[in-house]
Amino acid sequence: MQASELTRIEKLQAFIARNPSDGFSRHALAMEYIKLGDDASARHQLESLLEQDPGYVGSYYHLGKIMERNGTLELAAEIYKQGIKAAEKAGDRHAAGELSAALLNCED
Fold first, then answer.
1. How many structural domains are present in the chain?
2. 39 and 69 together in one domain
């Protein structure tokens, strides 16, 4: 782990400690973990975020991809389906389309 990556992770962890409901920081922390190949930590952050805020649509895609990488395709498909519903509820057709494409690729 490079020093700059550690610094970003530490800063994001500090933001979350001060404001646990900060979805942006939690999502950003998950992306940092994904960059490092730490899917377990990323999964934890994304699941926590979606538990707090099921409308944080962008997190479904990344959580689904983690499940795919770990070979849990049925769970990935379920996450994509949940994300599609959340995106449609939010009126985010672009995200719904991306999640639908991920679902189709996952089910192939």
1. 2
2. no
Contacts of 49-54 with C-beta under 8 Å, sequence gap 24+, read 49/23, 52/20, 52/21, 52/23, 52/26, 53/21, 53/23, 54/82, 54/86
> pTM for the whole thing?
0.90
Helix (H, G, I), strand (E, B) or coil at 45: helix
Do the Cβ atoms of 83 and 57 come closer than 8 Å?
yes
Task: Say which range, 2-11, 42-51, 92-101, has the weakest mean pLDDT.
Answer: 2-11
Task: Please check the confidence at residue 1 and state whether its pLDDT lies above 60.
Answer: no
Q: Which domain holds residue 44?
A: 1-53
